[in-house]
Amino acid sequence: MADEVDFIVARPFVSEHFSDKLNKFSISQSKKIHSSVLKQNYNEAVEHSSKEKEDFMKVLNKFQKANEQEECEETLTAIFNCASKDVNFNPKEQKQIGKTMKTKLEDLFEFLYELASNYDFTRERVNLLHIRSALQIILDDFSKYPTDVEGETLQSAINAIVSVGDDTVSELDSAVEHWKRYVVSESQVFSVKHLKKPEAIPCSHTWWR
């Protein structure tokens, strides 16, 4: 019987220097891919935020020309959409927002009060959490925007309404709580997922889950 011979397949020799270069190349490529993904995500975010801003400024222009409470719901929805996309406004846009909101603030509060106090849950026309957050954006952020009066901000107009004992916020908060219970138990349009806070919405908006 012939002697058994063990065949050993030679492994290709890789020098330590070449291996080090290979590792560096791999890391470099990984960084490039990661950077490319981040850039793509950033560009997509900018594109979306630009669209939200453009849509909002168009709605704001309609709101400025509207009679009484017309366009209020659309304006509030547009405000929420901008907030949920973390849209920032430049000084010129801030002044336009402040100027328009100052002239329409009373109509807006009246609309919100009527919506909250007479809300028909069965119509299911709007997510009340969007409306509530939009109001808070006005109170917290838009309030700092300048108006058409030198040195004045929208906060002055807000104070003029709130100081007379306006119950809009409390009425809306009450409606929101009732609406959330309705969503969980009976709604055919909304579900629990519609109660989850979007990432860009501040944590201070505690009406979200």
Succession of helices and strands: HHHHHH
Helix content: 55-70%
Low-confidence stretches: 36-48
- Biggest sheet features: none
Morphology: globular
- The percentage of residues in β strands lies in under 5%
Number of strands: 0
Describe the protein:
This protein has helices spanning 16-65, 72-84, 91-117, 128-140, 154-162, 168-185. The chain is globular and about 80 Å long. The model is unreliable at 36-48 (pLDDT under 50). The chain has 6 helices and no strands. With 209 residues, the chain is mostly helical.
Brief digest:
With about 210 residues, the chain is mainly α. It is built from six helices and no strands.
Core attributes:
6 helices; globular; mainly alpha; about 210 residues
